[in-house]
Amino acid sequence: MAASRKNAAQYVGLLAAAFGAGVCLSYFLGGQLDNYAYDFMFRVHPPKSWKTQSVILAIDDKTLRSCGGMENIREPLARGLKAIASVPKVVVVDLLLADSKPAVDGELADAFRRTSNLVLASQIADAGWEDPRPEFSKGAAIGHVYAQPDADNVTRAIPLEKSSGRVRRWAISLEAFRLSRGGATPVEDPDYLNIGGAVIPVPASEDGRSLGSNGRLMRVRFAPPGMPPIPRVSLADLLEKPTLVTEFTGKVVFVGVTSLSLSDRLSTPVSFATQTPGVEVHASAFETMAQGLFITDIPHSTKWVFVFSLGIAAAIGLSFRYLPGWQAYAGGGLTLLGANLTPYLFFTHGRVFSFSTPFFAAWLGFVSAAAFYHLVVRRNWRTEQAARARYQQAMHFVTHEMRTPLSAIQGSSEIISRYALPEEKRKQIALLINSESKRLARMVEIFLNVERLSAGQMELKRETIPVKELIDICVERTRPLAERKRIGITVERMADELQVTGDRELMEYACYNLLTNAVKYSPQQTEVAVSGWKGEGQVRIAVKDQGIGIDQKEVKQIFQKFYRTRKAEESGEAGTGIGLSIVQQIVEQHGGRIEVTSQPGVGSCFTLALPEAAAAERN
């Protein structure tokens, strides 16, 4: 339960960190990513075609060549405006006319007076607004000509209002829309402008306050590729062909420079390679208002984006927490897809919802949750494999270690049941059965303790063990096996004061296993020597035989479970290769180590190096 709570806390902490990282990434990188996403959605979801209400009277390269350049444009412009004076609904002149040219200003002023619903351009200079000359602006509306390129120099919106000092100007596109709707004064609300009953959803700012010099940004709906663009008529062509005047009937006419060499060229979401003249941007802004094709940001979007992103991260986390297997990945993937598609669904309804924050939060959350899920599943798999290996080891232990006492018990019981034995012999056999039964019980207990230690489910007993007593017990238990092979067991230099601390039964098993291996793999009429001494703060117990020995290349492998050396296999002795693995586990659990020196055909020496019992424990 505690481990489960710890895993859950780690999981929640990881997801929280991923969400925080996603929010931070969106803060630093989100602006540009949102712009890219906006441009992509702008192109893949174009609006239905509309009948344009505007036309551009273009000052193009042909016009400039015919009049000798921009310094001579006023005279042909005056003639062009006189030619169409009575047919347009509104005329917007996107030219700055603050300087004086006496030779032609009178004719241009006369053309302006004949033009109804005229809008002239203005911009901010050092001293404030740079307005058209008074003879031009008499009776005309004046608007600003500013667009609002983003940091990547792409124009996606324009400010409908702009201030300098105490003087505010509306955009020329808004003035054109206002005059085309009867010239009503805009009614201002913190969230919109109302012009003659037409509502333009442009908030002063997200919190309803003025944005200062740039106010009420309106996203422009540009005509995407494949849709007829705003019509253009060259000023030079109009002067050559008076019949073209019909192109302007009932239209809002935007007059401006389209020449590649002179016009202010702007990038838009639909035109990167071929930039758009500024006059066309203003005409597109007018069309956005005239057609009601508004694209608006969701009110208080910062708050809703945060809540949505948090919900996405939580949904992904829950998917990997509670769904099994592939369903976890499917649930997380669908949530991830939903996070990426939601801004597009909003865009199809004319709403702009941030793409970057849900994107980063969803992807980082998905990767983090999937990684954690993978690691937990893999860890559980490893735990299961370890448990299975321990189970297999248990079965081998039963067949390997318990065969001898079981055989003794079985054989003795058969003798008692099949033969009439003297009472003394029956008692001997009964004592043997009792002794082997107890030995078998001790083996089972030792095995269970080793398994618990390996699984981390048991703490070692802490008792003081006299080494000489331990060795004497193990030697006496091994001596019958040695006598059958006429192998002598001698105990050399074993001081009485040697003591270690640990689990007596486990240490007995370790020493007994080394002794039985020494006898098992030694030829007849040889010697097995056991010694113990103290050195460098350790108690060292060595079992040395004159047996078959071990090749040096195999020495490092003999402690692997189920490994048997080539010579052990050839000896004909039964074994499973787990005894030394268990001995190593026991010794390492006691804070010690096992050392091996061996030479084929000469013999082996196994040495247990164990921490010496502390003085307080010896007392």
Could you characterize what this model shows?
The chain has 619 residues and is α/β, with parallel strands linked by helices. The chain has 3 domains: 2-42 and 300-380, no CATH class; 48-292, no CATH class; 460-618, Histidine kinase-like ATPase, C-terminal domain (Heat Shock Protein 90), CATH 3.30.565. It contains 19 helices and 24 strands. Strands 1, 2, 3, 4, 5, 12 and 13 form a 7-stranded mixed beta sheet that branches. Strands 19-21-22-24-23 form a 5-stranded mixed beta sheet, with helices on one face. A 3-stranded antiparallel beta sheet has the order 7-6-11. A hairpin with a 2-residue loop joins strand 21 (527-535) and strand 22 (538-544). It starts with a helix and ends with a helix.
Q: How do the helices and strands line up, and which of them pair or pack?
A:
Elements: H1 2-44, E1 54-59, H2 61-67, H3 74-84, E2 90-93, H4 102-114, E3 118-125, E4 128-130, H5 134-137, E5 141-144, E6 157-164, E7 167-170, H6 172-180, E8 187-189, E9 192-195, E10 198-200, E11 214-219, E12 232-234, H7 235-240, E13 252-257, E14 265-268, E15 271-277, H8 278-291, E16 296-297, H9 301-322, H10 325-347, E17 351-352, H11 356-401, H12 403-418, H13 423-454, E18 463-466, H14 467-484, E19 488-494, E20 499-502, H15 504-520, E21 527-535, E22 538-544, H16 552-555, H17 566-571, H18 579-589, E23 593-599, E24 603-611, H19 615-618
Parallel strand pairs: 1-12, 1-13, 2-3, 2-13, 3-5, 16-17, 19-21
Antiparallel strand pairs: 3-4, 6-7, 6-11, 8-9, 9-10, 14-15, 18-20, 21-22, 22-24, 23-24
